[in-house]
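Issue 218. Parser rejects a valid record. Input:
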Amino acid sequence: MTNTSDVLALDSLLTADELALRDRVRDYTAQRIRPNIARWYEDAHFPRELAPELGELGVLGMHLDGYGCPGRTAVEYGLAAMELEAGDSGIRTFVSVQGSLAMTAIHKWGSEAQKEQWLPRMAAGELIGCFALTEPTAGSDPSSMTTFARETADGWVLEGAKRWIGLASIADVMVVWAKTEDGIRGFLVPAGTSGVTATPIEPKLSMRASIQCDVKFDGVRLGPEAVLPGAMGLKGPFSCLNEARYGIAWGAMGAARDSYEAALEYAGNRLQFGRPLAGYQLTQEKLVNMLVEIQKGTMLALHLGRLKDAGHLQPQQISLGKLNNVREAIKIAREARTILGGNGVTLDYSPLRHANNLESVRTYEGTDEVHTLILGQHITGIGAFRG
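Output the parser choked on:
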């Protein structure tokens, strides 16, 4: 049977191990996510029970080595992200927040004691982490954050607020970024710490099978062991954001591919004026345009993955991948919905759910504008962020 999602035979560029991992995650998505996602989305429910399953699947912190982490390649992580987001962006976001953000922060910047305490159980999905960087008035410009950690004789006192923090209300540990007298530092705040309040943001029109929260820190007292010793300045959080942005370049193509395949199947079965929708030129043009961008975007993601595995991937290349692939994925999901007609606004079909989710994906880990300015600075040598 012809693979209508891979006209360029991109699978031939993958190794046997990469294909095996991709197919394992694809099977998991088909069995556990697709049958349930409409209900989870409608009910605004994040299925916490998936965490240990995803740990067993080997996709939590899968690009990290040691401390119980899977130690897989960048391409393998990308393939997993693509298959999970074909199910739903909210599920891929959990894997990203857990592994690319929280676990990466601890793995890259934490002490040995912090790594041993948190990473093995996070990799297994027994513990959940979150990454608190964005604030109510500091989104695209984290340097203007106002959350502050004051050093005391016996540790630190944390004051401030964060917004749009994924998983915060169910997290066992928060990675919190705050200003100090010496610059921006990272802190580990365990669940149950006095003075921390996490409130889910509701109602939402996007990412409904996921959790995002407002978080407040009111006189939060932390011991000296709470600080991430290796992180100083914005380099700490930005190193984690680049890991997440890389995964998004892959994940967005999963949402796009699923939207295209839903539209293709519908067009082949839906009769209008006595023939399938797929038999009309306008429908075929829509499907072809979708497929072309999915193939190009997937090729781009794979190229980024090979660069990353070779140790050559640069931030501006990640920005190009995130900017292009999410932007095109939204167009594809919206166009796929038009083929479905009125039926496409129901949760029986995935494209409009993907389109709604992708509005959030387009915003977090850097908006289109931020990635445009990153690329603009790279090609002109002039920073225009504060133009």
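Fixed in the parser; the record now loads. The first strand starts at residue 129 and ends at 132.
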